[in-house]
Amino acid sequence: MQQPFLSKNLFPSVSLSVPQSYLGTWRRTLLEQGDTQDTTTVVLWVQTEKYHADIRIPLSRPAFGVVNQLKEYSYDQLISLAAQQGFTGITQVKNNIAEWLRDHDYQPSNSQRDIAEMHFENDDVLIEKGVEADYFERWERIPNSHLNLSMMECEGKDRHANKVNARLFRSNNLFAYVRPRSKRLPPAENISDLIDFYQPSKEELLDWLDFEISFGEIKDENEGYITHSTFPFREGETVKLNEL
Questions:
Q1: 159 pLDDT exceeds 50?
Q2: Domains of the chain
């Protein structure tokens, strides 16, 4: 699953039910793209029978001091968050071809489709090869993450306290929460390009980065522990899942 995009429906007549073999939470262990390899970016993907959520945190994201809100970061620290990726939407699969139709994306739209040829090495190892982009990814399913799988639409709030539609995924003892920004970004290759072109104020940049994707562990029925997030200050936080 590569560059951010808004896609047309490739399979308009195909059932929305994703094959059982894809279900669960997957961790990427390898990306090969051109002459480069990446084994350090944290990449997690949760897949239900219809919806997906994905987060990508590069190793280059710096460690930050203790803060409690996005607005407490400096301008330069906010810029360092621009390389993060993540998205949610509907997945469609036909034979061995999968497409991820993103309706909310941390990065701006660049009109590229996210479509790949898929091959299972075994039940828990999945190989993805780009169809319209040259890349290779290896995924490993987290054990038992296909159990108790669900996605619930819920209501979140942006940094201005405006209500925003959000999604809460459960995958056995794991969860993922996606609360998008209120407005779409202007089309561009990535947020860094937007920053270079528009030279946004700090308030504008805060609105651009106000997109939470958090993955974590479920401690009991309604309590979770955030392990990875596009909001670094939330990592290590214990949360009530019904209050996200």
A1: yes
A2: 20-243 (2.40.128.280)
